[in-house]
């Protein structure tokens, strides 16, 4: 195994990213690039903005540096363009047209740096009837059909926090798109614009389900299918102490082991008879209610029954497997997910806590050779005004 250079903090070491301060998926995508070693400079606005959270706890700003630039001030756009001239990537999450009005859209940026990868993060995309409408994760995933898949039959769809839209369908697709465009730029010298829309990414995530729907093996309704809770051997069950166990015994050999351990051989044949799935579910549910979560966890320990306890956010970092892998880490008094994925030659780490607005202006001005960043700017108030994640305006 190669020994990493001490100055290497991940496979993207040496890549420079300008992040125009936003909320939700844009900052998360920039955090991912920063976790992978990129030098991410977040351009914060004087006066704050963003989530109603103390900046000291905003983990999505870890491994970054922050400078203050007022894009609405006469000199603001020029300062950002000076950074762009030295950058590989720019990420912004404004509504379509806002960056252009502020003077930092793709055209002036590419005039300063033709190799720049210009990443745009929105909910609706850069075009289409809804492009300029405000929105949030829940509305984006609602139109894609994915929200309607989640939940129990006969009940309202279950909201999957903002993980499905903002982060899976948004941030991860933006990061992949930016990295693909960066590869192209380094090979050809030509930058480009990456239009990452949550509606596009979230729809793309449903590719396998769409195939099953076309093949007739997926019903277009909640709680009636193999992977949406409709299957009695792929779902969650309450235990005697009000906690839950998750069962994913799909394949026959795993199902056989599950049935043997839970002691329900008499209803095992119901697996292959959809008409008996209700009977099987009731039997499994009744059996799980006879013991606590800890007791069931111990029973299934070491088996291939594909059963696991449903843990809370607070419990997860203490699970023996996650603890052994270092899936979570503590930095600055905050327990947080460690960077992922992992690399054998260029390991990653949490190098610094959440960037405080403007705290790194002098260092970035020196490192990026942009002395104008040191010009006076408006002070940052102690507490930013409350704001909620969604599509950015200006």
Compile the SSE list and pairings.
Blueprint (H helix, E strand, L loop, with lengths): L15 E5 L4 H11 L3 E6 L19 E5 L7 H9 L4 E4 L5 H5 L3 H7 L4 E6 L14 H8 L18 H26 L3 E6 H8 L1 H9 L18 E5 L5 E5 L3 H11 L14 H12 L4 H8 L6 E3 L10 H6 L2 E4 L2 E4 L23 H7 L27
Parallel strand pairs: 1-2, 1-4, 2-3, 4-5, 5-6
Antiparallel strand pairs: 7-8, 8-9, 10-11
Helix pairs in contact: 1-6, 5-7, 6-7
Gist?
The chain is an alpha/beta fold and 394 residues long. It is built from 13 helices and eleven strands. Helices cover 32% and strands 13% of the residues.
Question: What would the keywords be for this entry?
Answer:
394 residues, alpha/beta, six-stranded parallel sheet, three-stranded antiparallel sheet, 13% strand, elongated
Distance between the termini: 48 Å
Number of strands: 11
Strand content: 5-15%
Rg measurement, Å: 24 Å
Number of helices, where a helix is a run of at least 4 consecutive DSSP H or I residues = 13
Which series of helices and strands comes N to C?
Answer: EHEEHEHHEHHEHHEEHHHEHEEH
Query: Percent range for helical residues?
Result: 25-40%
Shape: elongated
User: What is the residue-averaged pLDDT?
Assistant: 93
Biggest β-sheet description:
6 strands, parallel
Briefly note the structural class of the backbone: alpha/beta
Strand order of the largest sheet: 3-2-1-4-5-6
Uncertain residue ranges: 378-390
